[in-house]
Amino acid sequence: MYGWFEENGLLLGLALLDGLAYAALVFMVAVGLNLVFGVLRVLNVAHGSLYAIGAYAAASLGLFAASSGLPAWASLPVLLVAAALVGGILGPLIERLLLRRIYAQEPVLQLLVTFALFMILEDAQKLIWGTQPVQNDAAMRLLGNFDVPFGADFIPFTAYQLFVLPGVAVATLVGLAWFLRRTLTGRVIVAVTTDREAATAMGIDASRIYLLTFTFGAILAALGGALSSPTASLVPGLGAQTIVLSFAVVATAGLGQIEGAALTALMIGLSRSIAVYFLPEAEVLTPYLIMVAVLLVRPQGLFGVAETRRV
Amino acid sequence: MTTSASMSRRSVLAGAATSGSLLMAGSGAEAQPAKPAELKIGITTFLSGPASVFGVPAKQTAEMLAEQINAAGGIGGVPVRLSFVDENPGTEHLVGEFRRLVQSEGVHVVFASISSGSCLACTPLSDEMRKTTILWDCGTQRIFEEGRHPFAFRTQGYGTSEVLAPLLYLLKHKPDFRSIAVINQDYAWGRDSWELWRAGMDAMKPGVRVVAELFPRFNSTDFSTEITRLLALRPDVILSTSWGGELVTLVRQANERRLLERSLMVLPVAEASLPPLGRSMPAGHIIGTRGDHWVNHPRPRDKAALDRFVNGYQQRFNQPAIYPCHHMFQAFSALQAAYTKAIAAKSGGWPNDQELAAAFQGLTFDTPTSRITIREDGQGMEDQIVGLSSFGTLPYAVPEKMMLYPATNVSAPVGQKSVDWLKTLRAGLENTAGEAI
Amino acid sequence: MSDVLLSAQGLRLAFGGVKAADGIDLDVRRGEFLAIIGPNGAGKTTFINMTTGYLRPQAGIITYEGQAITGMAPRRIVARGIARSFQLPQLFTEHTVLENVALAIAAREGPWSPLAPLLRPRWREEAVDLLERFGLTSIAGARADALNEGARKLADIAMAVALKPRLLLMDEPTSGVAANEKMEVVETLARVLRAAQVTAVFVEHDMDVVERFADRVAVWSQGRIAALGPPAEVLSDPQVQRDVIGIERHAAA
Amino acid sequence: MRRTETLLAIGGAALLVLLAILAPWLRFVLTIALAKGVAVLGILLLLRAGQVSFGHALYLSFGAYTVAFLAPAMPEALILMPVAMLLSGLLGLVIGLFVSRYRDIFFSMLNLAISMVFYSLLEKLYHYTKGTDGIRVGVPRFLGMALERDQFEWAMFGTALVLALAIGCFVRLYLASPMGQALSAIKTRETRLEFMGLPARAVLLSAYVLSALMGGLAGSIIAMTTRHVTPLLGYWTVSGELVFIAILGGAGAALGPFLGAVTFELVRVYAAASFADAWQAILGLVLLGVILFFSRGLWGMVESLWRRRA
């Protein structure tokens, strides 16, 4: 028999595992939003819709792949393909047809354009996928369970949750960091994020960078959705939930900061799962409380750089 | 068939201009109306958001039934016409729409709401506008226990019977359980249903240890943390009154991680989520349907009618008819019965609002599975059937070892508050309240 | 009453490794026009920024009228009678020039009734009058973002003057002003300031302007004051000529 | 244009009264629209400073719940309204002291976060708030008189209309005053304000408190009109809706919010009536059209029409 402390210590360990998986999902959807905000300075409300559409598309494509006889292992790459398709098609369309027309306008108008888009896409999803739960958990079942010892007992976790989600998130983080630091395009994106005026003054083709970044952000949003689809059943209203949380992450992280997004996601993920264990009623409040606390101490966000006001 | 979709903007504007006179009709319930050209029914239901899982099938059912009724000559010779309102935008929008339905559309009757909050907001309006309102799906016990609503009638069961029946089933099926955990959606039904359950459980089987009370955020898509905690706690029983996509997600995630091998689940609102769950729903857990309308009901009142309805729906919409479809059926059935009764009482004359409402008092109407009587407080007495999940010919789970609980055995008597009544229950009721069928 | 209006002692401030102020000691005398010259990056603007509260020196003390103002918020410093203008004009771009000046007047006068308009008769009159003195009457109704560089510069200074300061710090008041208008602009400015008995410190690159209008010149070099004195004396110093003016001329060419 | 605006305001008010007489059910919709217009006036003040609050549903729901909680003890509409307004203003002062330090996205998101905390509490504190079921508000007295439902609805409509006109006038004066003008100065050159001795934070804070007062008042009107309050009134999409209305109506004048609010509510009602399945998409399309083709909103359209005629 374990004492209170030992038992709770073990629970804390479990909470860590759950928090990690949740953090991975939060990170995937928030990092794209943060990247887009950093470069375009547009807070994209429709990011939540892209997430939802990515999830739906992944489930549908997975079901289609299975019915057309693709082997079971294909259910994992299908998630990536669906995300790339959704982001790769919708991203450029949205950037070219809508956002492009309003870059010169006030930020609130840009925000509202994406809000309008969000409303339209919400109904569009319903039109395409209906209102009944859509699901395809092939990817989750593929890898089966992994038993984590828990005292004399054991707790089964899905390998998907334990390895795939954090794995993809870490790969995304490392890949993004490498891309932004080591490639020319990446450096240009960073330059635009840090000082838009200076970067455009240096002759950077902002239009191309905007298109690229937005598409990239859209793919990340869709990927976030696609990754969540094997464990969740998809119903209307998915996007609205996701986007508020991502907003909180972006503001907490600091604009355009991918490491900040990762750290914030981790904080949110862990505190949420710890809350579920020890203070379930506080669970929904944690992301917002974290944000308020962080901004009290660091008004520019965790990794944000104070904008120098030139006089 | 005419539904709201065909209503043009112009007709709404015209309605706005002429409804001064309609108001008169609405408030003067004693006026003697002539037989109208159409019987207008306003229906509030979820057309967007997560609860559209229920709302849209119900809407489809209403359209199908209206078509059938009209093909058969309408109600009392008058064809019905439906207008739908989306509940999702919130109360402030909904009560405005309720007024529009009554004052501008001039509906004769309103079918109100899936959400309890919507019902609570609409019933006072039914009092004020003296417009017969059928509460066709919402379950909150607060409606008729906290006030009198002479124009509102619920044509199905409610939270108390829908929670008590599975509790009684559990007490009989697994009388030796010692610990329980609850994982409900964090909103009124999730909280209310747990309060009802707890009151009944503590009265009939004191001393059960409640090891966890989890109320994850409404519309959550990830329950892995909660599941881990439940796996670690190993409660004998896990109760969840969740519904829709969330229940599907919860059961799938729980099943994948073999939680359902460790604990017995009690799912009072399982039925609508069983088709999408398919084989992910393991056998041997307690499932309910907010009524008695299981597709495999062993002895329905009218087998042919049940098959006709269920198969007709399946064929037309390529989906199984889930419980909201049945609740919509009940609302239509009650409406037809009430009009027949009112017209007969008036020797063939068309009833006004007051007379229509009067017809609902003590009304008995047929459903494919049984017969429902509306009590003097407006509450419908719908029997409950609970069973254990099992697999037969269908690709999804249906109940076996079913117990039927007559509504009068599992409903708080008129004038008593549910929680107070549940506290008076005593052990042994599980052996007398229901019968195996 | 002391002859010294503003006094800086031992000001130090470094950004990373760059010493923008490396022991600045300077007394500004009541009523004088003091020019600050020196190459870019010598710390001239930093001095103004420290004096007006935008930057806090890491060491040293600034006193004004004998009282320490080191590290005070800009707002507090303005309230004591120190105003500044900016190298890059800081105008409210959605307002007209008249409104810009009126806002400055309002700032000086506050607190006010929240329901009387900004352009209440008394303030409007004063703003019109001030703009006239700056020769900006013709553009009083123009939006601030529609002006040319010279006009923006003047409007920027007019706003500072509208605060009725006793000490005005100007960061390159003539940069951006067309060469043929420059003398006239400075002439106007000097007249307005003298009439209002304002002490002025200004950063300037044009040696002709310095020679003609400054009572004293301070030469900045790498965060220090390399020379200080009347223009005739300082500008003829061979070392100043070589180190500062040479560079300036070179840069100008 | 000034006189025109006054004339338009009077004409608009007359039109609303006429509509309310002709179509009783519209009276309800219009009361809500007027209340939202009042809340949007507050949003407009903040927009002047370039700040977008994505959390003002907080004050709306706070005002509404204040009424819901106090109505049983104090069933008098003309007391409930100012009390809800003042308490909401007090809350705005406390929160404003914190958020007025932040700008742009941080300002937006902090407001969002705080409003979501409040929303979650409304849902969580089930025993006090009845969770998502919400609280029913009885018909309060009006000026000490117990009114019939119909009379009470007229009273609320009239009160909302009078308040809308009065607060619209106030906002117009405020915007022309140094306080209001300093707001737009925050947007264009905040540092200069500081160097002129004007505390930008205080300027923003006063606007913020005013917006909280207006939000609370609007919430109290909504509560007494719908007579049932649920947490949904505090959800972030409602905050978005307020900003939506501000832009739809046009942020250029005090009349804009009401133009926007009435249009918004009517479009929503008609879209919901004609296309119950896709009303959201229709609203989205309307907003998209307005932003892409008339970025100054409906008021901007009215203005340019007027200019063309003049």
TrEMBL record, chain A:
Keyword check for Ligase: no
Key word Transmembrane helix present: yes
Localization: Cell membrane
Transmembrane segments: 20-43, 50-66, 72-90, 102-121, 159-180, 209-228, 234-253, 285-306
Membrane topology: Multi-pass membrane protein
Coiled-coil spans in chain: none
Family to which the UniProt record says this protein belongs: Belongs to the binding-protein-dependent transport system permease family. LivHM subfamily.
Name listed for the protein in its UniProt record: Branched-chain amino acid ABC transporter permease
Organism of this sequence: Roseococcus pinisoli
Lineage: Bacteria, Pseudomonadati, Pseudomonadota, Alphaproteobacteria, Acetobacterales
UniProtKB/TrEMBL annotation, chain C:
Keyword Transport among record annotations: yes
Keyword flag Ion transport: no
Superkingdom as given in the UniProt entry: Bacteria
Gene3D superfamilies, A to Z: P-loop containing nucleotide triphosphate hydrolases
ABC transporter domain segment(s): 6-247
Molecular functions (GO terms): ATP binding
Keywords of this entry: ATP-binding, Nucleotide-binding, Transport
Coiled-coil stretches noted in the UniProt entry, renumbered to this chain: none
One Pfam family here: ABC_tran
Protein name as annotated: ABC transporter ATP-binding protein
Species of origin: Roseococcus pinisoli
From TrEMBL, chain D:
Keyword Protein transport (UniProt): no
Ranges annotated as spanning the membrane: 7-23, 29-47, 54-71, 77-98, 105-122, 154-177, 198-222, 242-267, 279-299
UniProt KW keywords: Cell membrane, Membrane, Transmembrane, Transmembrane helix
InterPro entries: ABC_transp_permease, LivM-like
CDD domains from the UniProt entry: TM_PBP1_LivM_like
Membrane topology of the entry: Multi-pass membrane protein
One Pfam family recorded for the sequence: BPD_transp_2
Superkingdom of source: Bacteria
Major subcellular location class: membrane
Entry's localization field: Cell membrane
Protein name: Branched-chain amino acid ABC transporter permease
Organism encoding this protein: Roseococcus pinisoli
